[in-house]
Amino acid sequence: MENLHHRRALVTGAAKRIGRSLALGLAAAGADVAITYNGSKAEARETVEALQKLKVRATAVACDVRNLESVQAAVAAVVEQFGGLDILVNNAGTFETAALQSITLAQWDKMFETNTRGPFLMSQAAYPHLREARGRIINIGSLGGLHPWPTHGHYCTSKAALHMLTQTMAKAFAPEISVNCVAPGMVVNGEVDPAYEHFAKKTPMQRNGTPNDVAEAVLFFARGPHFITGQILAVDGGLGL
């Protein structure tokens, strides 16, 4: 496993929730970490303070991953501050429950703009810097991109597209950049909502996942063999079996 000390990582949408755990996991392993946020400026500031307590360089950059100019500016700002980029984690995403027959065009487009176009734009902007560093891209997909959920049709389809984008980039960006994807199942943070308890009962490991489970999988791709590329790793306790 590679040492992440002095590696430079960018995690999108990491001001809170799972993204924050991914950023903290990378920092705990020694990486300098930049995060992007859209509407969560206060939370982003708190996350940067938590990252800095781990004795690494940390910064937060405002970014709308749906917008080309915003993405390019964010990547340029991180590269200027850190002097390059080694790891990109495309975490920013959106989730919604809706019956397929009632999904509007606006709902459909918003889902794809964030979950699929966002990682594409970020990866394209980061490509020359990651290529120079022989870096890594880690996309955050979903079990929903592997299994159809009838009340999340637009979400599942956007994540399935991200999985295919992962594999396409893995071939297109090789051999300099490895590209992989972590696909979480049911992930809960803290006290479990009773509405989600039934997922734990259906999971072979008899519990729902945690943000730390996802963070450990990201760390595997961040510091494991660069030779591993194009993989979709389900982190679901066997729920998808």
Topology:
Layout: E1 8-11, H1 17-28, E2 32-37, H2 41-52, E3 58-62, H3 68-82, E4 87-90, H4 105-133, E5 136-140, H5 153-172, E6 178-184, H6 197-202, H7 211-223, E7 232-235
Parallel strand pairs: 1-2, 1-4, 2-3, 4-5, 5-6, 6-7
Provide structural commentary.
The model has no long low-confidence stretch (mean pLDDT 95). A seven-stranded parallel beta sheet has the order 3-2-1-4-5-6-7, with helices on both faces. The protein is 44% helix and 15% strand. It has seven helices and seven strands. Helix 2 (41-52) links the parallel strand 2 (32-37) and strand 3 (58-62). It is an alpha/beta fold and 241 residues long. Helix 1 runs parallel beside helix 2 (41-52) and helix 1 crosses helix 7 (211-223). The two termini are 28 Å apart.
